[in-house]
Amino acid sequence: MNFLGRPFHYEDRLFPFYLFEYVHEVAALLDRCSAHRPLRVLEIGGNVGAWGRALMHAAPDAELYSFEPNPTPFALLERNRSPFPGWCAFNLGVAAREAELPFFAVPGKSGQGSIFRENARLGLVFGGEPQELTVAVRPLDRPFLEQHCGGTSFDLVKIDVEGAELQVIQGLEDIRWSCMYVELSTGREGAQTLEEFLSEARQRWPTAQLADVRQLEEVAEVVLTAV
What we know:
The protein has about 230 residues and is α/β, with parallel strands linked by helices. The chain has one domain: Vaccinia Virus protein VP39 (Rossmann fold, 3-Layer(aba) Sandwich). The protein has seven helices and twelve strands. Strand 3, helix 2 and strand 4 form a beta-alpha-beta unit. The mean pLDDT is about 95.
């Protein structure tokens, strides 16, 4: 199918029904970003690249660095990012230490993959049982960021990791950012309260402030700004 004027590759047959939600999400986040251009954006949980495609359509000169540990959606992410020279992708997850971890995904729904088995099948009516695989994770420390991502400062950070939010921010201590969007698990494995997450975030980024929150059934969409 075409998405925003270019071919788009995906795995989940239901994906087209909610694809354009990413366009509205990105537009709202860009309104909160600094006036600095070109934007530097860090995406943890790139999936097949729908959010990234929406970002590159809205801000074609942006630098986008996407991390996706699951090899199945990563292969599609690679195809979907290929027309955009400013978009880099890494087949890695983010955590406090370099490791290989068990990971779970339902075939055909691997974009919902998680380090938690239950999260990989949560809400799925069809699709079968999650299959286990191994994924690589590492911290995004200063040497890695300077070598592969052009530095440690970002205008926008997006985190969507199906329950692994705490592990991710523990692996991001060396970054600086202006705006952060997190899909925070509040009703599934890996759940934290908003207060717990803010406490963890402020240990690393003391100036972080809650800008917006929208509670959904199992997650909260959280926007932080650094002042």
